[in-house]
Design goal:
By secondary structure, the chain is α/β, with parallel strands linked by helices. Helix content is about 30%, strand content about 20%. It has a single domain, classed as TIM Barrel. The strands form 5 sheets. The protein has an 8-stranded parallel β-barrel with strand order 2-3-6-9-10-11-12-13. A 6-stranded antiparallel sheet has the order 14-15-16-21-18-19, covered by helices on one side. Helix 9 (about 200-215) packs parallel to helix 10 (about 230-245), helix 11 runs antiparallel to helix 12 (about 285-300) and helix 15 (about 330-340) runs parallel beside helix 16. It is globular and about 75 Å long.
């Protein structure tokens, strides 16, 4: 008996396009973020500069109710602070100051991560009142807001440069330097100055500036840039102080288990997993690499550590290519995988609108704003992630069990389970069609088509390239 399942590029068929536009009523009360929220959350990375033609807080705020339809429960705002003019980059190693044409200089807005003032907002985006409206609107819609925080370095215009040069790393000549790698060589981040964490006063000032956004603007936590470049001792001092103000969520741009110990960060990046997904899509790796990664992940991380799964983010999009460039026909199967595997899935600005361009990093650009193939897919995956107990990936994660197939090099099948509820993901992660069996039994429903499906070890399935199903009991 052979079952042929036409469910590869899920969002393309008519059945899955029949999504319902719903009006989202704001919630009347707000409670601080908690473990229950983190268990089944979807996180959205908001690039305010590029989100709209205006590039403002207000333009983004107007769309927050739409994000709720995608299951978004946490918004991560890329840095909202003023950007240094001093040593501002135009592209590569070219500084704006090196451009002779004054009008040409104006189009280069600099790196979001060259912060000129931790307690101010970039006036290109609006005012602090506009920012407060964004946070309030998010809270009214049951969504939390975290700020992108840059603790490793500042821009060269930051007041500390002149007022407290001792806050910075200096060379033998007493000159402030840009960040260095482990070999003592420059990373090439010449538009920023490296902070000196041997200075206790600087650490206190940093903590105070982070507390400001919690106490004065009610933010719900921070995504910390280059978190692994800051001493662990600082986080052990800072994060408990921040949690004294309110319950917050901490995301580390890092992939080291130590930074998740105790009551420090709740979530880190799944960079290794992301790179493996890219390699599978290119055909330079197969499912065995993913299986090895998942075993290593189980051994290295605590059961309640959350890893952020993604097919794109601001770095990947701008520097390494669009989802379509990197993943091609594999993109939907891999996107669905980031929602069904343990962890929290990420949506990056423009991804929901089928964005197929690399956003300019140092200049104004704009994401598309027309719903196409990806929006309904994200809507369905978001509904599944946020409501199904078997996809819990927070402090009390659902179990993950690899299911054996007749071709484990190219077929990925696994079961997530919580109590008597389960979800099964089966995918042909290969550019060739595959006929196979899965060592599992049960009666299931295909969650995106609501069709019934029975699985047994002797049932032969036939999948097209990159075809996948998500099943529930």
């Amino acid at each position: 008996m052979v079952w042929v399942l036409f469910f590869g590029i899920v969002a393309c068929n008519d059945e899955t396009k029949k999504t319902v536009e719903t009006e989202t009523e704001p919630q009347s009360s707000y409670t601080p973020i908690n473990d229950s929220v983190l268990s089944n959350a979807v996180i959205y990375e908001a690039n305010i500069r590029q989100y709209s033609p205006e590039g403002t807080f207000d333009a983004f705020t107007a769309d927050i109710p739409k994000l709720k339809d995608l299951g978004v429960q946490i918004i991560w705002l890329m840095p909202i602070h003023p950007i240094s003019m001093e040593k501002r980059k135009a592209q590569g190693d070219l500084m704006v100051s090196e451009i002779e044409d004054l009008e040409e200089r104006k189009k280069y807005l600099g790196s979001y991560y060259a912060v000129a003032d931790y307690t101010a907002v970039n006036t290109e985006y609006g005012t602090k009142t506009d920012f407060d409206k964004l946070v309030t609107t998010a809270h009214e819609n049951g969504i939390y807001v975290i700020l992108d925080w840059v603790p490793n370095h500042t821009g060269w215009d930051h007041p500390w440069i002149t007022e407290h040069p001792e806050y910075y790393t200096q060379n033998e000549a007493g000159e402030i330097i840009d960040p260095l790698n482990n070999e003592g060589e420059s990373w090439g981040w010449t538009d920023v100055a490296d902070l000196n964490y041997d200075n206790a006063e600087m650490q206190q000032a940093m903590i105070a500036d982070m507390q400001y956004w919690i106490t004065e603007h009610d933010v719900d936590g921070f995504r910390c840039d280059v978190a692994h470049g800051v001493p662990q001792a600082f986080w052990e001092k800072a994060i408990p102080r921040l949690r004294e103000e309110k319950d917050i969520f901490m995301l580390a741009e890092a992939e080291i288990p130590e930074i998740m110990t105790g009551d420090l960060f709740e979530m880190s990046y799944a960079w290794e997993g992301h790179h493996i997904l890219n390699e599978i899509a290119k055909g330079s790796a197969n499912v065995a690499a993913f299986d090895s990664y998942m075993k290593d992940r189980e051994e290295k991380w605590e059961a309640n550590d959350i890893l952020m799964n993604f097919v794109t983010n601001h770095d990947e999009n701008s520097w390494n290519g669009t989802v379509n460039e990197r993943m091609g026909d594999a993109q939907d199967a891999l996107l669905a995988l980031t929602y069904t595997m343990p962890g929290m899935p990420l949506i990056y600005s423009g991804q929901e609108y089928d964005m197929d361009k690399r956003l300019r990093f140092f200049e104004k650009d704009t994401i598309p704003k027309e719903k196409g193939r990806v929006w309904p897919l994200l809507e369905m995956l978001g509904q599944l992630k946020t409501t199904h107990p078997a996809l819990a990936g927070g402090k009390t994660p659902a179990s993950y069990e690899r299911l054996e197939t007749s071709d484990d090099q190219h077929l990925l099948a696994f079961r997530r389970k919580s109590g008597d509820r389960e979800v099964v993901y089966i995918a042909n992660l290969n550019a060739q069609p595959n006929t196979f069996t899965v060592n599992a039994s049960g009666n299931y429903t295909q969650l995106m088509t609501e069709e019934s499906m029975e699985i047994s070890p002797d049932l032969t399935l036939e999948f097209a390239p990159w075809q996948y199903v998500i099943l529930s009991n």
